[in-house]
Write a structure and sequence with these properties.
The structure holds two protein chains of two kinds.
Chain A lengths: L2 E5 L3 E2 L5 E8 L7 E7 L5 E7 L6 E3 L7 E6 L4 E6 L8 E14 L2 E11 L3 E5 L2
Parallel strand pairs in A: 2-11
Antiparallel strand pairs in A: 1-3, 3-8, 4-5, 4-9, 5-6, 7-8, 9-10, 9-11
Chain B lengths: L3 E3 L2 E4 L4 E8 L11 E5 L6 E5 L3 E2 L7 E6 L2 E7 L8 E7 L5 E3 L3 E5 L1
Parallel strand pairs in B: 2-11
Antiparallel strand pairs in B: 1-3, 3-8, 4-5, 4-9, 5-6, 7-8, 9-10, 9-11
The chains are: A mainly beta, B mainly beta.
Chain lengths: 128, 110
Amino acid sequence: EVQLVESGGDLVQPGGSLRLSCAASGFTFSSYSMTWVRQAPGKGLQWVSYISSSSSDMYYADSVKGRFTISRDNAKNSLYLQMNSLRAEDTAVYYCARYRRNVAKDIVILPVHYFDIWGQGTTVTVSS
Amino acid sequence: QTVVTQEPSFSVSPGGTVTLTCGLSSGSVFTSYYPSWYQQTPGQAPRTLIYNTNTRSSGVPDRFSGSILGNKAALTITGAQADDESDYYCVLYVGSGSWVFGGGTKLTVL
């Protein structure tokens, strides 16, 4: 079964740090790009960060750039999000999601650019 | 700053048809934005419904369909059921390693 399981969410004070983890199973983790998406309480989804399969490319939403760092360990089938200088507005459920850049249809490779598998999320609360 | 717009709320009668839209605050949505749609019920993770404008994800009933209508992406539910009552989010790939979600539409089936 394809599965993503997040962990590491906690209550942290403003200015503090936290590291989230996402354990992948049921698929060849090293072949897929991965992302983090968050959802503040009562709000919508927000893309946070992206990392390519080989870690050669990493992207961040402007709201977290310079504070968050995405990384992965393909040998451990794990994705991470290091969050520093946390703010109250970072309070959210954080989901990891597998990213599909393209799919093979017959002999053609089609770009698709979507999030196909989601974890159940881990809750980060930033408060004093 | 790219803003993706969705109707905040919508209601549909059981068995009815509803079309939710996904637009841009400035400009049109094209297939090259690779619009995708996600369903989320309270307390649950999002579920992928539609990708690449109109391709249903594995296991998604064919009462869900995606398209481009005018200058927006659209999600149509035909023959709505009670368990379709959820929040629906679209997301657009705006390029250069950036994805923007719409604010979501809360669908009520009553």
